[in-house]
Design a protein that fits this description.
- The chain has a single domain, classed as Vaccinia Virus protein VP39 (Rossmann fold).
- Helix content is 33%, strand content 22%.
- Strands 1, 2, 3, 4, 5, 6, 7 and 8 form an eight-stranded mixed beta sheet that branches.
- It is globular.
- By secondary structure, the protein is an alpha/beta fold.
- It is built from eleven helices and eight strands.
């Protein structure tokens, strides 16, 4: 079993490599003929191009949902994006907050931070900043954010409970989050569960959906709502990197489900009397 630090280093190394490529290069390096395992970064991505604020230079095709579409961001909000990558969700969020708002992207991969900052400077996005750090212990003071978004990132963190706990800390009372992530229904085969490439691609780092939602509740959040859910199918040319033909057949017959979910939750306001809790 890999240690937490070793798993984090796997992710950091892989995403540093991806940060140096564009979206087309990432996709082209995963051709079906070679069965390149890095295709796991692309099989889950949703189409951002129709969203206002979309910036093509920041889209590396790494997400598994469109959390900013569901995040209920208002003008003037302070938004934090966990695992901000090249800045894709930050720039969409910036469009929603307007110039009077602020967006903070947090990522622990130096190459991603560098690329995101270059994008922000290129487009003159002066109210977007990127901070280097772990999302389990964000470089942000408490009660700062109106909204938190994240796109297929918590899966990459072994200690997900710590992330939800810190999300609760940095959100203002009455604030909320909308995050997209990968969850399971059933148990993945061991060879997939422990494959480093699959971990960095978000799939083998997934936990059971009920467990995931339970961690959100345990952190203190309320009004937990599934905003979107879709099944993820791992192509055979990826499965063959890890499983034999018989194992692939058994896996497909097992009814194990891999899902992308977008989940919303709130840091509830404290009760001030008998009426405000109703």
């Amino acid at each position: 079993m890999e240690t937490e630090e070793k798993l984090k280093q796997i992710v950091k190394d892989k995403y540093a490599e991806i940060a140096l490529q564009d979206k087309e290069s990432n996709a082209a390096s995963c051709c079906g003929a070679t069965g390149c395992s890095t295709e796991v970064y692309n099989i889950m991505a949703d189409d951002y191009t129709k969203l206002d604020g979309y910036t093509a230079d920041a889209d590396l095709g790494l997400g598994c949902g469109l959390p900013t579409q569901f995040a209920k961001i208002k003008k003037g909000d302070t938004v934090i994006d966990l695992g901000s990558g090249a800045g894709n969700d930050c720039f969409v969020a910036r469009h929603e907050t307007g110039p009077e708002g602020k967006v903070i992207g947090i990522d622990f991969t130096e190459a991603m931070i560098d690329r995101a900052r270059l994008n922000a400077e290129k487009y003159g996005f002066n109210n977007v900043e990127f901070r280097m750090g772990d999302i389990e212990k964000m470089p942000v003071t408490a009660n700062v954010a109106d909204v938190i978004v994240s796109n297929c990132v918590l899966n990459l963190v072994p200690n997900k409970k710590a992330v939800f706990k810190d999300m609760f800390r940095v959100l203002k009372t009455g604030g909320h989050f909308s995050i997209s992530d990968v969850v399971l229904a059933g148990i993945l085969p061991d060879k997939l569960q422990h494959a480093a490439e699959m971990y960095a691609g978000c799939i083998s780092g997934a936990v059971q959906k009920d467990e995931y939602l339970g961690m959100i509740k345990e952190a203190g959040f309320s009004n937990i709502t599934l905003q979107k859910e879709k099944a993820i199918i791992i192509p055979d040319n990826i499965l063959t990197n890890y499983l034999t033909a018989d194992e692939i057949a058994d896996y497909k017959a097992s009814n194990v489900g891999i899902f992308s979910i977008t989940v919303y939750a709130e840091k509830a306001k404290e009760c001030c009397g008998t009426d405000c809790c109703n």
